[in-house]
Amino acid sequence: MTYEILLALIAFAFVSSITPGPNNLMLMASGANFGFRRTIPHMLGIGLGFTFMVLLVGAGLVQLFDRYPVSYTVLKVASVVYLLYLAWKIAHAAPAQSRDATGSPMTFLQAAAFQWVNPKAWAMALTATTAYAPGQTLNAIIIVALVFGAINLPSVSTWTVLGQQMARILTNPRRLVMFNWTMAILLVASLYPVLWPG
Predict the structure, then answer these.
(1) Contact 129, 141 (CB under 8 A)
(2) Please, what sign has the CA dihedral across residues 21, 154, 107, 92?
(3) Is 155 exposed, middle or buried (0-12, 13-18, 19+ CB in 10 A)?
(4) CA angle, 18 then 20 then 26, to 5°
(5) Under 8 Å CB-to-CB from 42, ≥6 apart: which residues?
(6) How far is residue 10 CA from its own chain's centroid?
(7) What would the mean pLDDT of 8-33 be, rounded to a whole number?
(8) Residue 195 has what pLDDT?
(9) Domain ranges in the chain?
């Protein structure tokens, strides 16, 4: 991998990791509802789960879609259904005074597994492994995965911090409900590229 490709990969990893998407919107909602510390397993699940996903996609999982196109359609439907379910959960999160008793943030394994039905994660993994892994060699795939592992976790964590800071103005239950509904609507809106591609 040349120096120029590595720099381009770093820029792509940063921009794609820091911009809004399902992971970041859910982390922001979790930071606001549960705080930074309780959201750490969710953040680690995203960072490590996505890194593992890049490795598997680069190792040839994408060939499954080429060979069996219906599998991509199945994945797309599963992604949409699961994201709608998560949006519903965010919209109906417990008010501030009762969230500790009735709600819980996403676990490490849930967040890692979510990467496999996250449309943005698939787009990032496919782009990264096809555009920035010259020759699709194992060494190049590992470098791509490591770069994403190093950049993704700090990038997505900023959304948890943002949500945690917003919690200061979300002490009123009505404001928290409005915030959660806004996050849910934005999560559903993030499905636009999946439902109506280019």
Answers:
(1) yes
(2) negative
(3) buried
(4) 105
(5) 26, 27, 30, 105, 106, 107, 108, 110, 111, 160
(6) 18
(7) 90
(8) 61
(9) 3-190
The confidence score (pLDDT) of residue 162 equals 92
Apex 107 CA angle, 102 and 112, nearest 5:
145
- Among 177, 20, 180, which Cα is nearest to 86's? 180
Comparing C-alpha atoms, which of 54, 173, 25 is closest to residue 123? Answer: 54
SS percent in the chain: helix, strand, coil, step 5: 85, 0, 15
Cα gap 29→124, rounded to integer Å: 22
What span, in angstroms and rounded, lies between the C-alpha atoms of 198 and 18? 22
- Give the pLDDT score at 101: 44
Tokens 């009762």 belong to residue: 98
Tokens of 80: 């949409």
């911090």: which residue's tokens? 161
Kindly state the tokens that stand for 175: 């404001």
Backbone angles phi, psi at 15, to 5 degrees: -65, -45
What confidence score (pLDDT) does residue 62 get?
64
Distance of alpha carbon 168 from alpha carbon 182, whole angstroms: 17
Percentage of the residues of the chain whose pLDDT score is greater than 70: 87
Please, which residues have CB within 8 angstroms of residue 92's CB and are 6 or more apart in sequence?
180
